[in-house]
Amino acid sequence: MTFVLATHNAGKLREMRELLRPYGHELLSPAQAGFAEAPEETGDTFGANALIKAKACMLATGLPSIADDSGLCVDALDGAPGVYSSRYGDSDKERVDRLLREMDGAANRRARFVCAVACVFAGGAELLSDGVCEGEILTGRRGTGGFGYDPVFYVPGMGKTFAELGDNEKNAVSHRGRAIRGFMEKLVKFSGAPPLTSKARAELRARANGLEPVLAIGKGGLGESVAASADAALTARELIKARVLETCPDTAAECAASLSAALGAEVIQVIGRRFTLYRYNPELHEPKPEPPKPKPARKAGPKKPAPKTPRGKGRGRA
Predict the structure, then answer these.
(1) Of 22, 163, 305, 316, which has the most beta carbons under 10 Å away?
(2) Residues 6 or more apart whose Cβ sits within 8 Å of residue 77
């Protein structure tokens, strides 16, 4: 499935792409999808703000959109900076400096990163998942990786700050990694489809090479009849190829993206004026019932001998 990641934060975009890549989904940045807005985050929870951003992006692009809202909650600061974590200063340096000043002399250094991941689909359906990572606030920076508050957020179980962890280490324990894994579990249940891994996608591309187009899109573009035909074909076959005629006002990539969003299908490949879509249909994977076994034929028993005519009671002689 093609998603738009509704974030203009380069660090978040990189992390989210790394976390979602193993599941085989195509991920577009806001710039790639033509989304330049920064909706005002007026929610009082991470989940509410994530939904605000995902909805705005979906309405602007017409594509399923994922957004996250995350922040640092510090016990000694009564949960601050919380949902205002990104507004604690004008830069990462200013935000960390302010946090360290406010934590100066605090004995209780306990804190947690919290993340909410929201997805809004073109039909209005919503998915929401949360993730938490417990840790402590150090008195100074350690490490050069990550972004935001990572250099001062220490994870006791790892013995390192977020900024000292490698990408795989961080993704395994981070609030965002946990939220994404929870989101993927919900997405699988929502769609009824298993995750489309890189291997599965490659197998579908190989199968697509042998397909003939079952759909032709002409000068009328993507009308209701074209969408209905594509929907029926996907239900019957799961994997279909379409051909975009020269008279069509849209490119193959544009037609593929529009049908993908409207029908909940995956764009497997776009080559020239042809594209391939895939949509999992659980009914096609249900085990077929075994035909009833024929009843064993009854064995014929020995023939009964014909009854003997008693002597003296036969027909008389003529």
Answers:
(1) 163
(2) 102, 103
Contact status, residue 106 vs residue 74, Cβ threshold 8 Å: no
Helix (H, G, I), strand (E, B) or coil at 203: helix
DSSP string, 3-43: EEE----HHHHHHHHHHHGGGT-EEE-HHHHT---------
Residues 252 and 275: beta-carbon distance below 8 Å: yes
Whole-angstrom CA distances from 131 to 6, 82, 128 are 18, 14, 11
Strand order across the 126-137 sheet: 26-28, 2-5, 65-74, 110-120, 126-137, 153-155, 160-161
Predicted pLDDT of residue 167? 83
Q: Answer whether residue 81 shows pLDDT above 80.
A: yes
pLDDT tens string 271-280: 999 999 998 8
What is the model's pLDDT at position 318?
43
> In whole angstroms, how large is the CA radius of gyration of the chain?
32
pLDDT tens for each residue of 21-66: 666 677 788 888 888 888 888 899 999 999 999 999 999 988 889 9
Edge to edge, what strands does the sheet with 239-244 contain? 215-217, 239-244, 274-278, 266-271
CA 160, CA 56: separation in Å to the nearest integer? 37
**Model's pTM, two decimal places?**
0.62
